[in-house]
Amino acid sequence: MNNKLVVMRIISFFTNYIKYALLTVLVIFPFVIILFILSNINPDFSIHFFKYFKFLNPIFGDENMNIDKKDIMKIFFFISLIFWLVVTIFKYIIKRLFNLNIKLKIKHIIWLVLIPTTLIYVYAFVLINNHSLDKEFYLIFTIVYIINIIFIPIYLFFNNFINKILALN
Hints:
Layout: H1 3-41, H2 69-98, H3 106-130, H4 136-168
């Protein structure tokens, strides 16, 4: 193994680490906002939907469970896998039936992620206003939203960067 390949692998490893740290933030913040929205729409909201993921972790089937960031990421990765499978099958069918190859540019991906993220936060702001909640939530959610929209292109940059590094090998 030559030195160039070793350096490329080390760079790829560290950029992957940063990429997944960014992805964690991109998942956790909207998840917390969605839980905030759900708990304000229905004060009796429970997280019984976690029971559907007990094959990932048996504790998800318990009534009194504690979840942490790792558990949320397991669920996120499983749901992402399902979405990836659906999209891959859809792309395959489109390619076979219509002979089209769907390839999104980074700017389109940013908009496809940014629009739903923005809608989640806008809805949270509406809830804050309509439910006479503390106005500090505006500041907190605004800061979290700004972090989220900054991290989206950074994550995509790292993802693109890693793909280019791997293409050089």
